[in-house]
Structure formats: structure tokens, C-alpha cells
Design goal:
The complex is a heterodimer of chains A (185) and B (246).
Chain A: H1 3-19, H2 26-33, H3 37-44, H4 47-70, H5 75-90, H6 99-106, H7 113-135, H8 141-161, H9 167-182
Chain B: H1 2-5, H2 9-25, H3 31-40, H4 44-58, H5 64-84, H6 90-105, H7 108-117, H8 119-138, H9 143-167, H10 173-186, E1 190-192, H11 201-212, H12 220-230, E2 234-236, H13 240-244
Antiparallel strand pairs in B: 1-2
Chain lengths: 185, 246
Amino acid sequence: MSPLREKILSTASHLFQTQGINSTGVDTIVAAAGTTKMTLYKYFRSKENLILEVLEQGHQDFQTWLSDKLISKHPSEKLQQLFDFIEEWVTSPNFQGMGFIKASAEFPSETSAVHQLSSEQSRQFKQYISSLASKADIEDADGLALQLSLLFEGAVQAEQMIRGSGAMTYAKKAAKILINGASRH
Amino acid sequence: MLIKASSTPQGRMLSLFDILDDWLNAPQINAKIAQQDLLTKTEGGPLLVAYLTEQGRACGASHPIMLAEHLVLIARSAAQQTINQPNSGSLGHAKKAAHALILAQTPATKSIVNMLNTPKVYGIAASLAIVISVVSIVLPAMHHSQTTHINIVQISPPRLTTNILRSSTGITSDDAAKIYAKYEQMRNGTCQFPEALQIPEKDKAIYLEDVVGGKLPSDVGDLAIAKFYLEKVHCNYTPMLMDHSK
């Protein structure tokens, strides 16, 4: 990836997370990245394409970070520690929100490509939890994954609204209750 | 609707999910309109958060405002999923997640002790007693109100006593998880339950609904009672073939 393209992508990502996607204009991105509109459109063709790439990149970064953290764990440990790591990520100083959750709220129309991608990423995350639950021998893996993803997304939204809200700490406790309840004994 | 839905603050918070489920399954409601409302209409949001905050306080939640906001976010997200996929069961799962979240914020022993130590509770109880007494004196013809008075006086003290005794044994959110796991396990076995006739009248409803019926109680006092009787249930998990080959 060219350094300029990367610079536009990271600038846009930061501005979308801190100022909102709809309220960040192309002019602002261009000014903050120190480039021109022509260059931005050369790499991304439209603002919508730029948003989609930012979402793809953010989701990939999160998935990679999480997978690396959980790589050497036993399946049941992975599930138990999933929320520990998510809490670590959410409470880190660099946390600026979860792309697909913000995008979904800002683009509610189902016909929007941004909405469709954010829904797909939400589904992929649920699927990831479900696969962990399944490997941990949880009978209703999909049901548990749905419960945990609702808890997680709610906590991230709460944290996006008020930084340091502590919502993730309680979500983590609730997740442990649900996981223990769903585990076979 | 929420106020009438349950007699406990936990139950009232959780009934939000049942009401939403009923509402979204009502054939006369256009799903698309409902979706627009959920996403764009915010007038009801602060009122709902305020109501849930009040319920959270009543059940001794550590951070009632945060709990209320989190519950609304979960409900909104699950409702949206239900609209997109009507058979996903999202609101049912959201209710389970919400229940766990309430348990995580309200450690049983802490909430019971807090509630009993709060002078406000005694104040409310005293006010209630005065109101009921005045009604029964001023309106002696209202036989019904006298009956209500008798019922309240008879039921409330033993229930509080039971809660104090049971909570002193240390009910925690982990216990709730264990009870839930036990219900799941019991589905795979043949279980012998104590005779309902042997159960004291005051605990019978909880025993039948929560232990025999397998419903996890949302009230901390009920949880302690359910745990007590659950320990008296004996189950056989021997696979049927193995059992017959003996």
C-alpha cells in the first residue's frame, strides 16, 4: 500500500471514530492528511468507498489482535478469556470505538453498502464467538454467541458514549454467568 | 405496561423484552415502520432509561444509570435483529443477557442487605401500613381492602425473614449460574422432586415455578429459596441402555 494511501486511511479512520462518519467531510480528511481531493479520489473513488475500506481495515485489525491474544489457549479458556481481552482493548488509551457498531448506527438504511458491511462484520463476530463456544463443547453455541454479542455491542456503545463508563466490566461478569450457565457439566 | 408486568424491579426490567417481543410479533404492526421508529424516535428513550434506572436502584444495582442504558442498548439492538430476522429469537436471548447483566450488578447478599438496611424501605413499609389502615378504617365497607391488608401482613414478614436467613448463606451471581447449569443438566436425567405437599405454603409457588418448572428466578430472595429446594432434588443421569443392562 502506498504511504499516502495509508495516511489517508488512518486519518479518515481517526476522524470517523472521533467526530462521526457523516459529520466528517472529505475536505477535513484531505486537510488533516495533508493531501488533495484529487489524490483521495484517485485512491478511493468516493467517500463511501473510503468508509468501506476504513471499516474493513478496522475489523481486520481487531480480529487479528484478538486471534493473536487467544492463539495458545484451550477452547474453553478462549471463551472465558474473550471478554477479558475485549475489556483490555476497550479500556486501552487508543480505543476509539468499534467501526461496525458506529457505522451501523450512522447508516440505518438496509440498502446502504456501509450498513450492509457493518451488519456482515457484526455477523462475522457472532460467528467467531459461536465457533469458540462450539469448540468449548457448548450445546447452544449460536444462542450463547447471540447473547454474548448483544452484551458486547451494548457495552462498546456505552463506552463510546462515555469513556471509562465501566460498562465492559459488568458485561464481562454477565458473560461469565452466561458461559458458566451454558457449559455442560 | 412495564409497571404491571411484575412485582419485582428485576422482573419489571426484564419484562421490557417480553413486551417488545409481543409488540414486534403483532401482525398489525408494520415491521418497517417499527424499524424506523426504533432507529429515529428518541423521545421515549430518556423516559425508559429513567424508569429502568429507578428499577435498578430498587434492586440495589451498583451503577443503576449504566445498567439502564446498557439494557436499552441491548433491547434496541435485539429488536432491530428481530425486525430483520423475525425467527432469530433475538429478544429471548437478549432477555437472558439482560438477566445476567442485572445479576452481575446486583450481588445477592449485597442487594438484600442494602435493601433491608435502607431506612427508605422501612419508610415505604410504614407509609403503606398507614395507608392500608386508614383505608380499612375509613371505608369498612370495602371488604376487599381489608383482605389485602391481611394478605400483606401475613406474607411480607416471613418472606423477609426467609431472605435474611438465606442470603446470609452467601448467594452470589455464581450461584445463579450454577442453578441455571443445573436446570440444563436436569433435562438430561430422571429427577425425583420433593412432594409439593411437604413444602411450606409460602415457598410453594417458587418451588413449583422455579425448581419444578425450571425457570431461573429474577428475584434474589426467590433465588435463595429455589437454590435451597434444588439441592433436595435427586437425579439419575445413567444412560437408559446402561441402566437396563444392570
